Amino acid sequence: MARCLAFGFPPPTDSRTIQKRVPLVKEVYAKLTRPDIAAIALTGIGGAGKSTLAALVYHYAEAQRLADKGPFTAQTLWLTVNESVTLADMVGTILEVLGKPQLDLGRLVPHSQALALFNALNTVEQPRLVILDQFENLLDWQTGHALPDRPGVGEWLDAINSQPCACRILLTSRPWPQGTREYPPTYLQEYSVEGLDITEGIDLLQKQGVTAPERDLRTTVERCSGHAFALTLLAS
Questions:
Q1: C-alpha closest to that of 191 among 70, 50, 38
Q2: pTM of the complete model
Q3: What is the mean pLDDT of residues 116-125?
Q4: How many Å is the Cα radius of gyration of the chain?
């Protein structure tokens, strides 16, 4: 398995320290189960709660699977993308997890690697949700296009935007991921993660032990635009 693609579990989602955002979780999950969507990219500024929302979706999807509900019959896969990851790393890791034969990736051009990854995700007996956290590490943060030294990533984005897929992919990314072609979002859809609303923000501050009049808490949430990480820092 590729060493620079971290395979494991999502970040903590303890209700004592975060907001559960149940309506958003159910909305994202419902979108991921639609036949006309192959992937969703959770986008937003750093600290907005993209990874936390993805983690909540992870647990919700697993609860549905274990209750024999929903389309996913294999365990949800969580992968964290660091700055060293390449498309070949993604292909090798995901093929191994899916139980697919390994390919001689050194003999495949990046475009063929991209198609191999899409085909692997689309030809499974047991569909699953695949979450790629911090996908922005493969992208130019200004344009959303794949970095020049990450060949094949743009072609893979083209593939998941062009047709349905048996598995579903959930990305977290600061910019909206752009493929190599100027096609409108079709099977790859964007979901912008906004700040906490006033009620959620006040509740988060109180969970962190902040005691103050409600009007002061409201003002704090408004001034931070509901930014979850900023509110957590203020409370610490």
A1: 50
A2: 0.91
A3: 95
A4: 19
pLDDT at 161 over 50: yes
Are 203 and 176 in contact by the 8 Å Cβ rule? The answer is no
DSSP state of 235: H
Rounded to whole angstroms, the Cα distance separating 179 from 94 reads 20
Could you give the CA distance from residue 100 to residue 221 in angstroms, rounded to a whole number? 48
| Torsion (CA) 211, 228, 12, 8 in degrees, nearest 10 | -170
Nearest to 162, CA basis, from 191, 144, 187, 182: 187
Q: Is 102's pLDDT higher than 90?
A: no
Dihedral sign, Cα of residue 176, residue 179, residue 183, residue 185:
negative
The pLDDT tens digits for 130-146 are 999 999 999 999 999 99
The label of the residue with tokens 């979780």 reads 25
Tokens standing for 60? 């919700």
Tokens read off for 179: 């493929």
CA pair distance 52, 156, nearest whole angstrom: 25
